[in-house]
Amino acid sequence: MKLIVKTLAGLEEVLASELQLLGAENIELGTRSVFCETDLEGVYRLNICLSTALRILIPIVRFEAEDETELYDCMNEIPWEKYVSPTGTIAVDAIAQGEVFRHSHYIALKTKDAVVDRFRSLFDVRPNVDINFPDLRINVHNNDKTFTVSLDSSGTSLHRRGYREEGEEAPLNEVLAAGMIRLSQWNKDCPFIDPMCGSGTLLIEAALFARNIAPNKNRKDGFCFQRWPNFQPELLKKVRNESISKEVPFNIGIYGGDIRESATRATKANIRSAGLLDTISIETRSFEKSIPPPPPGILMVNPPYDARMSLEDASLFYKKLGDKFKSGYEGYQAWVITGNPEAAKAIGLRTSRKIPLFNGNIACKFLKFEMYSGTKKVKNEK
Fold this sequence. Notes:
Blueprint: E1 2-6, H1 12-21, E2 25-29, E3 33-37, H2 40-49, E4 55-64, H3 68-77, E5 89-97, H4 104-123, E6 128-129, E7 136-143, E8 146-152, H5 174-183, E9 192-194, H6 201-210, H7 233-245, E10 254-258, H8 261-274, E11 280-284, E12 297-301, H9 311-328, E13 332-338, H10 341-344, E14 353-359, E15 362-370, H11 375-381
Parallel strand pairs: 5-6, 5-7, 9-10, 9-12, 10-11, 12-13
Antiparallel strand pairs: 1-3, 1-4, 2-3, 4-8, 7-8, 13-15, 14-15
């Protein structure tokens, strides 16, 4: 079974590594996606266990269409009754790329019309549309005159783990957080610290990674494949139990903090929801006053980079960040994701890595700083 596994820009190689560890075959990198092959059990496993995937699509047909009539006819010929009952529900997601079909919404509308018209002609009844929790979510990708039609096995995006009870403004996407942790090459052999934790996404994703907990094992929304005619509940139960059997303890330490009591309160609620109270420690304290465990360790922060913040204010903020790195985190690796790379220069340290990522629609840099002690530290500051 061929799959298209969607992810965020910059996380393709990280996702490919996860797919390999989970037994997928014929892995090939795409743009914001990875192609691979597996069986039905593998589809269940990937949905439950992947941390850097957004959706898992199963392509069912590919065709060429010159105009809207050909598009409708080709969609109408697909045996949709194999995938959803006449009284079920559907939703269509579409992406348009090219000069022939320019509007994604129009492609989705023509697809929906073709599907329901087929059911009406065969059964004299048609599926209803449910954009939130459909029995069948159809994905249509258009590139000029070429269409790839896939079944979305995930349903709602896989970043919706189900543990977020409370959130601060603009919380970090869970898939992005998981990807950042893996990009840092943290080996789970030293403490992990986020002293600007917001609602705790980095901390929770670090804990899931450290304890080898499948991020979507208890997802509240479930998966779209659970509403398909070929769903095998016993197979899903087997896959879920296998993932639980591979969980391990982690006692080295994951520490978080924030200057805002509202943020630490939200973080604690989310940690409790994720079942990780025994793994993550939280305190209300400013970054400047944070006291890390002895090195080595990983420090990772997602500081504010509000477009409304002036360059002068942002530069001052990042200078304070760099000062604390130098005076309080010797022997650590410090990672900063920023959408304001110009202001981030005020950190005053040489980066050892710069990784381009996107936080929503904001182009970011994921910066690594090696906080050596002694002569290496001085050398890097020159």
